Amino acid sequence: VLYRLLQHPEVTEELLKEQQQVLQESGLDPNGKSVDVFTCDVLKKMLKLDSVVRESLRLRNQFYELPHTNIRNHNVVLSNGTIIPPDRDVLINLWHNHHHGEGEENIGEFKPFRFVDTRYPATKVGDNYLVFGEGKHACP
């Protein structure tokens, strides 16, 4: 994320404006002189910051694949007919998943505010965003 912000200083300015606005609306001192507690609820209102984090991790993260093992005692049949036998390891290609979205424009470009008006925060996992895994063992 820091790398992307260094490449795009104009984005940093937008994030600073958003931060000041959200802090003021939340009754906190944007200059950091308040003794009030900065909470997760305040952070969740920073939609541009969330979008920059999500977009940065979508474009490049430390994992290129996500391993899974069929721990059931029977075959798992995928929607395309592929059969995964018990105890078989499967790798999900994260790079492909994050660079071939349906209906996405300029999917290979850094668009910092791509996710501002969506229902997908950076910490929300799903089929189109697997940085933190998926299912009951997903982080965070």
UniProtKB/TrEMBL annotation:
Cofactor(s) named in the record: heme
Tree of life domain: Eukaryota
Metal-binding as UniProt keyword: yes
Keyword hit for Metal-binding: yes
GO molecular function: heme binding; iron ion binding; monooxygenase activity; oxidoreductase activity, acting on paired donors, with incorporation or reduction of molecular oxygen
UniProt cross-references to SUPFAM superfamilies, sorted A to Z: Cytochrome P450
Pfam families tied to this protein: p450
UniProt keywords, alphabetically: Metal-binding
Family: Belongs to the cytochrome P450 family.
Protein name, per record: Cytochrome P450
Provenance organism: Phascolomyces articulosus
Upper taxonomic lineage: Eukaryota, Fungi, Fungi incertae sedis, Mucoromycota, Mucoromycotina
